Amino acid sequence: MSKKVAVVLADHFEDVEFTGPVDALKEAGHEVVVIGAEKGTELVGKQEEAKVNVDRSIDETSATDYDALLIPGGFSPDLLREDDRFVSFVEEFEMSKKPIFSICHGPQLMINAKIVKGRKMTGYKSIRIDLENAGVDFKDEEVVVDDNFISSRQPDDIPAFNREIVAKLA
Q: Which residue among the candidates 22, 69, 104, 144 is catalytic per the annotation?
């Protein structure tokens, strides 16, 4: 059964951490909706290999419209966590216990939403201390599944990440 997955995104996202999981989700038959600050804006990955148009503004959507959330890494999560609208959007997914998929720096947005304490997660090595200070039981593994959270460290982990996120939505 097809699911609807929200992807929160700002400029300077890690290109393959968007394209890899999104391609896997679409191949599995799921609908992917890019949520950004302004509908219709073109966002560019930090490698400038991926250009993505924002499908919906954060102001015109709600977690109730989706079955899961994907947070790609790069600089995007750091930019998004400055915006309370995106922080609240992430909080809504956790309150509903909907799946949240994060890779690389993606957990930065989850830290600001204050939803990671007591959870098992991974992320890029430079945010390990941030995650531990937020109360995460950090695992240096290619993919970590903890109930509705699925997290991975870096682009090399995308195959394992994709396998788990697709399985979670099956």
A: 104
The reply to whether 30 belongs to the active site is no
What confidence tens digit (pLDDT) does each residue in 12-25 have? 999 999 999 999 99
Whether 85 is a known active-site residue: answer no
The catalytic residue among 12, 81, 98, 105 is 105
Residue with tokens 């890899």, as numbered in its chain? 20
What is the per-residue pLDDT across 120-133, written as a single tens digit (0 to 9) for each?
999 999 999 999 99
Per-residue pLDDT reduced to its tens digit, 55-74: 999 999 999 999 999 999 99
Q: Which pair of structure tokens corresponds to residue 103?
A: 């890779």
| Dihedral angle, C-alpha 170, 22, 9, 116, nearest 10 ° | 40
Give me the DSSP letters along the chain. ---EEEEE--TTB-HHHHHHHHHHHHHTT-EEEEEESSTT-EEE-TTS--EEE--EEGGG--GGG-SEEEE--BSHHHHHTTSHHHHHHHHHHHHTT--EEEETTTHHHHHHTT--TT-EE---GGGHHHHHHTT-EE--SSEEEETTEEEE-SGGGHHHHHHHHHHHH-
**Dihedral of CA 117/122/124/126: which sign?**
positive
